[in-house]
Amino acid sequence: MLQYKPLAAIVLSCLVASSCADSQAAAARYFASGEEYFAKKQYSEAIIQYRNALEADPRLARAHITLARAYAANNDYKTAYTEYRHAGDLMTDDLQVQAEVGNMLLLGRYFDDAKERAQKILQKEPSHLGGLILLGNALAGLQDLDSAVTVAERAIRVDPNREGVYSNLGALQLARGNRTDAEQAFKRAIALDPESVPAHLSLANFYRAVNELDASEAELKRALELDPASLRAALALASLYIETSLPARAEPYLRRVAETRNDAGSWLDLADYLVSQRRTTDALTVLDKLAADPGSYAVARIRIAAITHSAGRTTEAHAIVADLLRRNPNDARALALEARLLLAERRVDDALVRARAAIQADPNSDDGHFALGRIYSARNEIESARREFNEVRNLSPGRLDAQIELVQLHIGRKEIDTAIQIATSAVQTHRNNLEARIALIRSLLVRPGDQPKANVQVQNLVRDFPSSPAAKAALGSFYSAVKDTTAARREFERALELDPGYMDALAELVAIDLSTGRPNDARKRLNKWIQKQPNDPVLLLMGAKVALAERRLPEAERILRHLVEVDSANLEAYAMLGQVYIAANQLPAATREFTAMVERDPNSSTAHTMLGLLMHAQRRVPEAIVHYEKAFESDSHSATAANNLAWILAENDRDLDRALQLAQSAKAQLPNDSSVLDTLGWVYFKRGMLPLATTSLEEAVQLNPASVMSNYHLGVAYAKAGDDAKARKSIEQALKLEPNFARADDAKKILAKLVY
Predict the structure, then answer these.
(1) For residue 319, is it within any domain?
(2) Angle at 657 between CA 655 and CA 662, to 5 degrees
(3) At what angle do helices 332-344 and 314-327 cross, to 10 degrees?
(4) CA–CA separation, 635 vs 623, rounded Å?
C-alpha cells in the first residue's frame, strides 16, 4: 500500500541528500586540485587542497593517504604519520596502503605497531611481498634478527627475481653480523639487474657500514653513472664525503639535489653544509633566496637568525625572531630558537620562559623540548633535563643531539654505565657519525678500566676519519687520560694543522703548555687567535691565564679589563682582575680610576662591580655593599655583583633572606660556576638549610676539586649535620691544598671536635 510522507519530511530529506551531494562534489573538486599540485611537486599547495577535501568529506579515505604522501614529500614526517594512521584505519582492505602505513611506522621506530600491521596483511594474503618485507623489517627493529632473516628468505621464494628482496636480506644478514652472507645477498641483487640503481645503493651502504669506504664511493659513482638524476645517490655520496672529512667534494652533489628538488629541505641542507664549512656569506645567500618564498620564509629566517647570533650580532638576531613572532605568536620553532639564543647569552630565566612557551604552542615540538633540556642542564636541574631529552627521543627517535646531551649528562652524574649504553645505541643508529663515536669514546675515558676499549674505539675513529681534526683531538684526549702528555700534544697539534680554527684543540694545547711550564708557547698560540677574534671571551680568558702564569701583570690586566667589557657576567674574569690589582699593589690607583668611571657613567654595572671588588679587597665592606647593590640595580643579570654581594652578606650574617635571593639569581645566570655554587651553599648553611647546603657545596667541589674554601665549607656543613667522617675528609683536603689558608685555625678546631 502506497504511503505518503508529510511535505516537511520530504523537503528535509531532499535537503540532506542535496547537502551530502554538494559536499562530495566539493571534496572531489578539492581532491582533483590537490592531485594536480602534487603532480607538479607543489606539495604545500597540494596539502591545502587535500585538507579542504577532507573538511568537505572527512571520510574520503584516498584524501588521507594522498595528504600523508604530500606531508612526507614536504619533509613533515610527524604530521604525515598521523595521516597515514587515518588512511590505514579507513582503507583496511587496501593491502598496499597498509604496507605503506607500516613502513611509516618503521620510520618512527614503532616496531610493534608495524609488526601488527604486517601480520594483518599476511593473514589476508600470505604471499603479499610488501607485507613480508614489512614484517621482516619490523622483526629486525625488535632485534629478532633470526626470525627477520627467515621472513626475508620467504620473501625471496615468493619473488626470486626481484632484486629488492636480496638487498633486504643483505641488510638483515649484516645486522646479524654475517658479513660474507650479507655481501653475497647484495651482489646477488646486482647480478639480477646490473643497471639497478637501488641495488648499487644498497651495496654502497653495505660497504660504508663495514668501513670499506673506497668501495662504497665506487658503487655510488656507478649508481650516478646509471642515473645521473638519482637524488638518493647524490645525497649518499655527499654524505660519504662529509663523514670522511672530504667536505669540498660534497658541495656539487648537495647543489645538484637542491636545484633538482627545489624544495626547502634540500636548500636548508645546502645552507647547513655551507655553515659547517664556515662559509656563512654563501649560506646566507642561499637562505635569503629561500626566504623570498612565503612558504619557506619562516624556516629560512630562523636559520638566518641563528647564523647572525653566532656571528655576534645578537640585536639583529633577536629582531629577526621578533618579526617572526609578530607574524605568528605561536611559532614554536621561533620560540625555541629564541630560547637557545637567550641561553647562549646566559639569560637563563628568560630562556626558560621562551622554551616553555614553545612547548605550550606545540606540545610535540622537539626543538622546544630540546631547548628546555639544555636550559635545565644549565640550571643544574639534571633530572628535569634528562626527562626533556628523553622526550625529544620519543618525538624524534633518530635525533642524535639529544642522545649526545644525555651521554654528557650521565657522565656528569658519574652514571658511566648508562652513558656508555646511550652512546653505544647512538653509534649503532648512526654508524658513521663522528659526534656519536666521539661521545662513546668520552664515556669510555672516564674510568681507567674502560680506557682499553676507548683506545680501540679511538684508533678505529682515526682510521675511518684520517682527515678529521675532531678525530685527532679525540686521540689527544685519550693520551691525556692515560697521562701521555707528549703524545697528547702531538695529536692536538695535528688537529690544529688540519683545521687552524679548531678551538677545542687550542684550549687543550694551552692547558698542556701551562701544566708543563711552557707559557711562552701558549702565548704564541693564543696571540694568533686573539688577533682574529679580539672579543672572544674564551680566548681572552685563556690569554689572561697565560699572562698571569708569566707574571706579566700589566698584560693580564689589559686583557681582563677588555674581557669584563665584552662579557660583564664573567665571574672568573673579575676574580682574576682583583688578584692582579692585589699582586701589583694597585688597589688605590684602580679605585680612583673606576670611581672616575662611575662619575662619568653612574649606571655602569661593570664599573660598580669593579669598585665593589676593590672596596672588598681593601676591607671597606659597607662601601663594597653599596657598589654591588648599584651594579645589580643597573643590571639585574649581573651575576658577579649578585654573587659577591650575597657572599658578603652571608659572611657578615646580614640580611640572609636578601643574600639567598641574590645567590639564587647568580646561580640562574651561572648555574655551573663553582664559585656561585659555593656562595649559594654557604648562604644555605647560614640559614640552617643543611640538606640544600651540602648539595650545593658538593656540586661546587665536584666542579672545582682544587677550591680550598669549597672543601672547607663542605666540611663545615658535614660537621654541622653530624657526618663526622665526611667532614674530616673535606676539611683535611682543604688543609692539604693550602695549609695556612684564611680559615685554617677554624678548620683545625673543627677537626679536633670530630668524634670519628
Answers:
(1) no
(2) 95
(3) 160
(4) 19
Total-model pTM: 0.64
Q: What is the C-alpha to C-alpha distance for residues 244 and 467, in angstroms, rounded to an integer?
A: 7
Q: What whole-number distance in Å separates Cα of residue 389 and Cα of residue 371?
A: 9
Helix (H, G, I), strand (E, B) or coil at 466: coil
Residue 121, CA distances (Å) to 27, 131, 145 in order: 29, 6, 21
With a pLDDT cut of 70, the percent of the chain lying above it is: 92
Domain of 675? 671-756
Nearest to 182 by CA among 226, 217, 145: 145
Q: Which residue has the cell 577535501?
A: 53
Instruction: State mean pLDDT over 89-114.
Output: 77
What CA–CA distance (Å, rounded) separates 134 from 119? 9
- Checking if the pLDDT of 455 tops 60, the result is yes
First to last CA, the chain: 107
Pick left, alpha or beta for residue 41 (phi over 0 → left; psi -120 to 50 → alpha; otherwise beta). left
Residue 8 pLDDT exceeds 80 = no
Length of the chain in terms of residues written = 756
Question: Is 707 contained in some domain?
Answer: yes
Asked whether residue 174 carries a pLDDT value surpassing 70, the answer given is no
Q: Which three cell numbers stand for residue 576?
A: 682574576
Helices vs. strands in the chain: H and E counts, helices first: 43, 0
CA distances from 617 to 516, 587, 623, 708 (A): 32, 8, 11, 18
What digits encode the pLDDT tens for the residues 628-652? 888 888 877 778 888 988 999 998 8
Please tell me which of 127-131, 146-150, 421-425, 574-578 the model is most confident about, judged by mean pLDDT: 421-425
Q: Do residues 738 and 705 lie in contact, with contact meaning Cβ atoms separated by under 8 Å?
A: no
Residue 697 within any structural domain of the chain: yes
As a whole number of angstroms, the distance between CA 319 and CA 7 comes to 65
Among 14, 52, 11, smallest CA distance to 30 is for: 52
743 is a domain residue: yes
Closest Cα to residue 197, out of 235, 160, 141?
235
Give the residue from 527, 608, 534, 597 showing the smallest Cα distance to 574.
608
Question: Is pLDDT of 736 > 80?
Answer: yes
Contacts (Cβ under 8 Å, ≥6 apart) of 159: 129, 165
pLDDT over threshold 60, residue 578: yes
Give CA–CA dist 403/438, Å, rounded. 12
Task: Quote the number of domains for the chain.
Answer: 1
If we measure between CA atoms, which residue out of 127, 71, 139, 140 comes closest to residue 95? 127
- Helix pair angle (163-176, 129-141), 10° resolution: 10
* pLDDT value of residue 2: 40
Task: Specify whether the CB–CB gap between 354 and 334 falls below 8 A.
Answer: no
Grid cell in block for residue 438: 666521539
- At 611 the three-state DSSP class reads helix
Say if residues 203 and 197 touch (Cβ distance below 8 Å): no
Question: Is residue 341 a contact partner of residue 317, using CB atoms and an 8 Å limit?
Answer: yes
Q: Are 377 and 407 in contact (CB under 8 A)?
A: no
**What is the rounded distance in angstroms from the CA atom of residue 216 to the CA atom of residue 210?**
10
C-alpha to C-alpha distance for 679 and 703, rounded to whole angstroms: 14
Continuous H helices in 125-162 = 129-141, 145-158
Where would I find the beta strands (DSSP E) of 108-252? none
Centroid of chain to Cα 36: 39
CATH code for the domain of 727: 1.25.40.10
- Cell of residue 309, nine digits: 647570533
Residue 598 is given by DSSP the state: H
Question: In whole angstroms, what is the distance from residue 347 CA to residue 337 CA?
Answer: 14
CA distance 52 to 398: 32
List the Cα angle 549/553/559 in 5-degree steps: 90
Q: What's the grid cell of residue 246?
A: 672530504
Q: Which residues neighbour 254 within 8 Å (Cβ) at sequence distance 6 or greater?
A: 234, 235, 238, 266, 269, 270, 273
- Measured distance CA(173)–CA(156) in Å, rounded: 14
